[in-house]
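User: Predict the complex with coenzyme A.
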Amino acid sequence: MAPINDDFSDRFDLREFTPGTDADGAPDARTAPWMDAVGMGFHEGTLSHESAARMAADFVEDGETFLGVYLREPFPGSVDETWPVGTFTWLRKGLSWGDGARVDTQAITGVTVRPTERRRGILRAMMTHALTRGVEQGYALASLTASEGTIYRRFGFGSAIRERAVSVRRNRALPFLAPTSGTVTVVPLAWLADGVGRGVFDRFHERTPGSMVRNSGTWPVVFGALTGDGEKAKDVRGAVHRAEGTDEIDGYVTWRVKDSGGETTVEVVDLVYTDDAAYLSMWEFLLSIDLNDVVQYKRSRLDDPIVAALADNRAYDVDHEEDHVWLRVLDVPATLSSRPYAVDGSVTLAVSDAMGFATGTYRLDVVSGAGTVTRLSSDVLSEVDGAGVDVALDVADLGALLIGSVSPVTLAAAGLLRASDEAALRLRAMLLPPRTPHGITYF
Ligand SMILES: CC(C)(COP(=O)(O)OP(=O)(O)OC[C@H]1O[C@@H](n2cnc3c(N)ncnc32)[C@H](O)[C@@H]1OP(=O)(O)O)[C@@H](O)C(=O)NCCC(=O)NCCS
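Assistant: Here is the predicted structure with coenzyme A placed in the model:
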């Protein structure tokens, strides 16, 4: 389909607005058609009144900002008379660097373009508008999770953390090679949802590099009250962990049991832990559930300690691995000075950014684990050796490195980052996170 009109604004009207609800709690006149358009974009069914009201209330609670792109001259009778042909939203979402350090990100979600209007620049227009607003609002970086792996690099996003869907076969898993500790107790879901579970997540978030704050709409799903489609869930159960000799809850797990391909499977819905002992014990509990063949966990981190803990490490299968959170640096000094560093040192980075937000050459100096950043030039100073530049990279690759899950040595090997071997190793040592990054937030 060739563009009918080369000029975006002749054909489309881009509007920014705040979602809202009417007097009955239903999505208001702008919010409802926006939600219908998103539902179509992600191939979702029509929402019940109750689900739509709940979702709209969550958008309001999370302080979202919506973008809608509207056709100026829709065909009569088409949904385009009321629905936007492009949708986009952002909200403030904290990213943890681990051990209490954090930064706010402009978290982008709800990105869809109607098939009849795709490839006319709607996504590019929405992204440019949103990131420009993000800079105005003082965000140091933007974040998103992607439905496809090839869309967002062109906008400066790099894949910063990956995740694995894994299956652990019960018959070869136990006993663990090291003893577990503490106790696991099955609890009513309503009790877990009443403050206990969120308290555990807060502590997980605080200590875990790569963790992100969750949307309001996530909680009823992970606590087993609702399905992902907003309907009543009936098949979820939950348990908590307490450390030896204390009454304090330091982990919880929710799960459902299902039949898949003739096998019974325990599918983990949410697994949240404030220390390694709780994580290990809850896995042991899941693997102890009788009348079951396999435990499936779709949010496993790379370098999962369970592999080492299992009686037979071959009980653990990686079913799938893919990108999880993508990061886009908007302000290099603010981003790099928000995270802690494993070792002291200095490194000069020349950052290219096709959208211009982060372009420049910067020196990062780390003293006692804290970074300060000096902007040496608003240009990308050229060669890695010539002008004293240690590392030259695209802003997308800077985003990929930030959490410490992706190594500069690996990106250099991939031909994406230019640095001497020594400089790549130095930067890798500085960025080393306090423990394996783990993201269990979807948005
Ligand atoms: C992905 C999607 C939002 C793209 O919207 P669009 O308006 O057609 O994109 P644009 O016309 O603005 O294209 C912008 C750029 O992205 C590229 N692009 C767009 N969609 C792409 C895709 N699926 N894969 C790879 N590249 C893509 C275009 O080629 C263009 O590149 P260029 O600017 O370098 O020339 C749209 O196809 C869509 O709604 N898909 C279904 C829902 C979805 O996947 N949403 C993403 C959720 S994370």
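The CA atoms of residues 392 and 431 lie 16 Å apart.
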